Amino acid sequence: MSTRLLPRFKADLGELSRIREYVTKTAMGLGVVPTALDDLRVAVDEAVTNVVVHGYGGPGEITLELSAESGDLIVRLCDKAPAFDAANEAPDELNPDDSRTTPGGFGLYLMKQAMDDIAHRPLHPGNELTMIKRNVVDAG
């Protein structure tokens, strides 16, 4: 039986640039079309930020896996933070009349807009967030 090692990152906002670099290089290596890279980076940035700020609230670790299947890009982000199903909390649209007194709160919306499918699975302990961007992997 073989064990596959996934890239691990510290759950720290200071790691975002390193994570972006990994995501960009890996996606390009999988054949993701360049026009999909910005959406991909936005979604991963927001997902990681949510894990760091709302999940751990302190030290932790994130694993991140990108794969391609039938022209689709699949991103899996796993953590060991307390279980939280962020995918079901994302609003479908923003209401411009909402009065906001604190910054933030748009990450889930941005993830949902950037990706085609988002699903959450609780782990024991932790969370697995799967995001799919359809028809963005060039077969040629």
List the helices and strands and how they pair.
Layout: E1 8-10, H1 16-30, H2 37-56, E2 61-69, E3 72-79, H3 107-114, E4 117-122, E5 127-133
What would you note in describing this structure?
This protein starts with 7 loop residues before the first strand and ends in a 7-residue tail after the last strand. Strand 4 and strand 5 form a beta hairpin. It is an alpha+beta fold and 140 residues long. The protein has a 5-stranded antiparallel beta sheet with strand order 1-2-3-5-4. The protein has 3 helices and 5 strands. The longest helix has 20 residues. The chain is 31% helix and 24% strand.
Proportion in β-strands: 15-25%
Oligomer: single chain
Helix vs. strand class: alpha+beta
Main β-sheet description: 5 strands, antiparallel
Q: Write down the overall geometry.
A: globular
In angstroms, what is the radius of gyration? 15 Å
Features:
140 residues; alpha+beta; 5 strands; 24% strand; globular
Short description:
With 140 residues, the protein is of the alpha+beta class. The protein contains 3 helices and 5 strands; from the N terminus they run E-H-H-E-E-H-E-E. Strand 2 and strand 3 form a beta hairpin.
